[in-house]
Amino acid sequence: PEPQTVFAHLVLINPSDPSGVRGWECRVNSTAGSALVSYDIVGDDINASYSPDFTVGLASPLPSAEQVVLATFEFAVWDMSHEQYGLELVPTRTPSIPGLMSWAPGADLENLTPLMPVSGDSTVAHIYLGTTVALALPTPTSTTDGEAVVLTWRNAAGPGEGYHVWRRVGDGEALRLTSMPLTSDEPELAYRDTAPGREPGQPTAYSYALVSGGQEVGRSPEVVLEGMTLPLATRLLPNVPNPFNPSTTIHFEMDRSSRAKVTIYDVAGRRVRVLVDAVLEPGNYTPVWNGRNDAGHDLPSGAYYVRLETGTKVDRLKVMLLK
Fold first, then answer.
1. Beta bridge partners of 193
2. Is the dihedral of CA 16, 20, 26, 28 positive or negative?
3. Is 32 exposed, middle or buried (0-12, 13-18, 19+ CB in 10 A)?
4. CA dihedral 84, 134, 57, 223 (to 10 degrees)
5. Separation CA 33–CA 26 (nearest Å)
6. Of 50, 72, 135, 207, which residue is the least packed, with the fewest Cβ within 10 Å?
7. Taking the CA atoms of the chain, what radius of gyration do you get in angstroms?
8. Are the beta carbons of 33 and 75 closer than 8 angstroms?
9. Which positions ≥6 away from 175 have C-beta within 8 Å?
10. For 14, what's the count of Cα atoms within 13 Å in the CB-facing half-sphere?
11. 62 DSSP 8-state letter
């Protein structure tokens, strides 16, 4: 059979030296039935040995951060006789620190520091057939230009995979901003949020999720923006979940005080439910639709349309009820 492709990321969490990462070494093992086929070392490596014993020195250090991505590995899995495969990080055959993996800070390449799996176990992941497992998704970077928040992150998605983007305001629930997964052949992805809907005095946090086989299989850490003053926009945002059963949260934003009406229609254009009909202040709103009409009766599976109508704008969104 054709091999399945699995991508994994080697990430150093909370390095103890603020000067960054100048080098690292470890051995990457996978069990029988899978094989390491390619890798991408982050940074400008100047002396290195590769696969499966990685001993890497960099011309300039990787910047210190909560999570520093060191490398991305691509594995092929083709032996269908196994239910799962282990991915293991262990010391090289001739480790610089006897019996240990290690990394070197940017200020002193000779000052080696032990490198340990977070779990304390050398087996850091299990790869199940039919799925893609990301060991860690790096934290995205963020910038603002006065009109939008722009998120960027390294693209490690394999064929048929993509990403969803999530936003959380203050202590509220995370809101998925993308209705369809983002895909690209470029080494980096970017997402532009023109209406982050920040509440006064509340931080706004963003993250992204890897999507494989139609399911989210990993979420990145959040990047938090403080003191942002970008404007709201009157619009509907993707409902979560979609498709849904039995209920879904309808997300919308208002950029000014106005009467707002949120109505559900069937595919024939018949009104089946009024969710909101009130004068609202600027902000974010999350009414829940339970898949019933105004009379309280359950509606059949199928496509429905959400309509947001204000004094200045009409917006529409398609949702799917599946039973």
1. 149
2. positive
3. exposed
4. -160
5. 21
6. 50
7. 24
8. no
9. 166, 167, 168, 169, 237, 240, 251, 284, 286
10. 4
11. E
Whole-angstrom distance, CA of residue 303 vs CA of residue 294: 17
Tokens of 50: 């590769």
Question: What is the pLDDT, as a whole number, of residue 230?
Answer: 54
C-alpha–C-alpha distance, residues 160 and 211, integer Å: 9
pLDDT, one tens digit per residue, over 267-309 is 999 999 999 999 998 877 889 999 999 999 999 999 999 999 9
* Listed residue (238, 174, 242) closest to 206, CA to CA: 174
Average pLDDT, the chain: 82
Q: Choose the weakest-confidence range: 9-18, 182-191, 212-221.
A: 212-221
Distances (CA, A) of 27 to 36, 72, 179, 275, 284: 12, 14, 39, 57, 48
Separation between Cα atoms, residue 151 and residue 140, nearest integer Å? 6
**What is the token pair recorded at 39?**
């890798």
Q: List the structure tokens of 44.
A: 């400008």
Helix (H) or strand (E) holding 217: strand 215-219
Give the HSE-up count for residue 264: Cα atoms under 13 Å, Cβ half-sphere. 24
Dist. CA 222–CA 204, nearest whole Å: 9
Beta strand 84-90 with 21-30: parallel, antiparallel or unpaired? antiparallel
110 vs 219: CA distance, rounded Å: 35
Which residue from 169, 322, 195 is spatially nearest to 248, judged by alpha carbons?
A: 322
Q: Which two tokens stand for residue 60?
A: 């300039």
